[in-house]
Amino acid sequence: MDSDEHKRVLDPERDTAALKALTHPLRIQLLGLLRQHGPATASELAARTGESSASTSYHLRVLAKYAFIAEAEHRDGRERRWRALHTLTSWSNESMEATEAGRAFVGLARRRQIEHLERSLARYEADLAAGRLGQEWVEPSGITDLMPRLTAASLTELFDTVAGKLEELTARDADDPRAEHVVFVAAGLPLAAPEHAAPEHAAPEHADREPEDHEAEDRHPADLDPADPAPADLDPADPAPADPAPADPAPADLAPADRETAGRDPEDRAVTAHDAEDLNP
Q1: pLDDT value at residue 156
Q2: Ramachandran angles phi, psi of 84, nearest 5°
Q3: Which of 34, 91, 38 is nearest to 64 (CA)?
């Protein structure tokens, strides 16, 4: 495991147990909550997630065992407070693809990100309808579905460019009172060419045809087309006591930690903390 104060880097060969521990959905959510909202007790996190204090306490101890979180300063002596040790979790896609545990973890992380996107869309619509967001957000907001033809090198460059610009804009708007938390999800998933090519002389398209699935009306050049994430879940490294399924948190309460963003290393994909509270990883 390589890490610094900002980023936890997972290695599928050395961090197999940590990977399995992080595949538990409640642990991902708890880690994201700590990364987004700061230190909290098991009771406070239980109230946010709809779980019992016993359940959140157990899963927090598992996260601490694998160095994702640690004890924070206590407000009083009655209950331990926990803090996240890093703001994001990162890994090499190439290294993860080489092991079964790595493939399972990445597949789960991507599925969680898509689920987070769905919850974020629902919350955005509700916030807009209730007037919690101003009309200035209507035009720039949206989801884009594009299918450009790119090389692997170009896709890497695109991720790095988006990550660099996002870092620049985040720093610029840090103290701007007009700024809001924005859920930003980027996906770049190449699809192999179909086995049988289309007929050479295809029927001409009509100007009044319905748009194809990949031609969403809401377009932003920097966004990419999300595809179905890879299957496969892992059993958690430390089985937890039987608990009711965790309630679906609102997007802002995801572990954003379930976001996968391009890191500076071309093969580096990161899960950020303030993005969603499901991973960051």
Answers
A1: 95
A2: -75, 145
A3: 34
What is the rounded CA–CA span in Å between residue 54 and residue 44?
12
d(CA 154, CA 200): 28
Say how far apart CA 224 and CA 150 lie, in whole Å: 11
Cα 217 to Cα 219: distance, rounded to the nearest angstrom = 6
Query: Which tens digit of pLDDT belongs to each residue from 251-272?
Result: 333 333 333 333 333 334 444 4
CA-closest candidate to residue 49, choices 265, 275, 245: 245
What are the Cα distances from residue 13, in Å, to 80, 100, 232, 268?
Answer: 32, 10, 18, 16
Contact 127, 237 (CB under 8 A): no
**Whole-angstrom Cα distance, residue 101 to residue 87?**
23
Q: Is 122 helix (H, G, I), strand (E, B) or coil?
A: helix
Q: Please enumerate in sequence order all residues whose Cβ is within 8 A of that of 14, keeping only pairs 6 or more positions apart, or say none.
A: 1
How do beta strands 81-84 and 2-3 pair?
Answer: unpaired
Alpha helices in 83-226 (DSSP H): 93-97, 100-129, 152-172
Q: Would you call 168 exposed, middle or buried from its count of C-beta atoms within 10 A (0-12, 13-18, 19+)?
A: exposed
pTM of the model: 0.63
pLDDT band with cut points at 50, 70 and 90 for residue 4: low
- What pLDDT, in 10s, does the model give residues 207-219? 444 444 444 444 3
CA pair distance 70, 129, nearest whole angstrom: 39
Treating both helix axes as pointing N-terminal to C-terminal, what angle do 53-65 and 25-37 enclose, rounded to 10 degrees? 80
Kindly state the helix (H) or strand (E) to which residue 271 belongs, with its residue range: strand 268-272
Residue 80: Cβ within 10 Å count: 15
